[in-house]
Design a protein that fits this description.
Radius of gyration: 18 Å
Number of helices: 3
Distance between the termini: 34 Å
Order of helices and strands: EEEEEEEEEEEEEEHEHEEH
Helix content: 10-25%
Shape: globular
Structural class: mainly beta
Largest sheet: 10 strands, mixed
């Protein structure tokens, strides 16, 4: 159900088409073998989710498993409820992304939602970096990400969106709600970030909101007692045409948060890659290789 004040309507039967709304789940568990190589230990994927084998793309991190989560549908539609559960066992190192940005279609009467639960075992390193949601006119979307940290584990998580009118006009989405929560292994809340945007305020480009920017991303680098100051200093030196960022530390020594604003999807992708590269370099000693999608 939409949280109070989220700006999203209660679920209702769609009047747009006879398409059946999805209640879909993706459940993945990763573990590390005796050599330190991470692998998919368990998987369950219901339509529209699809996963292939894990890839190993970084010579500097030969044991880090990369997985692209694919979608067999044409995007996210009204009343869809998508759930992703990622369990990363102790010592495993994983990068999870998507094959491309995801279209969130127009919704005449209700909304769509996604929930992601990420459980990090002791000493695990996890990157959950999906490509952005593309919000079509009159779309309403709610995203929730729950991160649970084990002892000395790190989770690098992003959530992003951009707006697009396929008719070439200036129509925008109706409402977008995002929440990223960071908790310890026992479920105690350490930090939470919420973002609520209405299309009408987004369109006005009012000072103090998004200005002229059309794309936004949040990245959380979650970990207890991280050496955050050097990471923050490196990120503040970043610069990219058409994009800007702000970074600050989370409460309770839970890590740091980065907010990116960009003129369009291309500028957003460039800045997010630079941000991710700097974070990976600081945490693991080498930047990631460019990935082909």
């Amino acid at each position: 159900m939409p949280p109070e004040g989220s700006g999203l309507p209660e679920p209702a039967a769609s009047t747009r088409s006879a398409r059946r709304a999805l209640r879909a789940e993706l459940d993945l568990c990763f573990a590390a073998d005796g050599t330190g190589r991470s692998y998919i230990k368990r998987q369950f994927a219901a339509y529209p989710f699809h996963v292939c084998r894990a890839l190993y793309q970084d010579p500097e991190q030969p044991g880090l498993a990369t997985l692209y989560v694919q979608s067999c549908s044409g995007g996210i539609y009204e009343d869809d409820q998508l759930t992703t559960t990622l369990a990363v066992e102790a010592g495993a190192r994983v990068h999870v992304s998507t094959q491309a940005a995801t279209v969130v279609h127009s919704m005449p009467s209700s909304h769509a939602s996604q929930r992601v639960s990420l459980a990090c075992g002791d000493g695990a390193y996890v990157e959950f970096l999906p490509d952005p949601q593309i919000l079509f006119p009159r779309s309403r979307f709610r995203s929730e990400i729950d991160i649970r940290l084990g002892e000395k584990s790190v989770a690098v998580v992003s959530d992003a969106f951009l707006t697009h009118d396929p008719n070439g006009g200036s129509d925008v989405f109706d409402a977008y709600f995002n929440e990223i929560a960071v908790k310890d292994a026992g479920g105690e809340l350490l930090a939470v970030d919420r973002l609520k945007v209405r299309g009408e305020s987004f369109r006005k480009a009012a000072p103090g909101t998004f200005g002229s920017f059309k794309a936004q991303a949040t990245m959380i680098v979650a970990g207890r007692d991280l050496a955050a100051s050097p990471i923050v200093a490196g990120l503040k030196r970043l610069g990219s045409d058409g994009a800007t960022l702000g970074v600050s530390e989370l409460p309770h020594d839970a890590g740091l948060i980065v907010r990116v604003l960009a003129a369009d999807g291309c500028a957003l992708e460039r800045m997010m890659h630079e941000t991710w590269s700097n974070v990976r370099l600081a945490l693991m000693g080498a930047p990631p290789r460019r990935r082909r999608k």
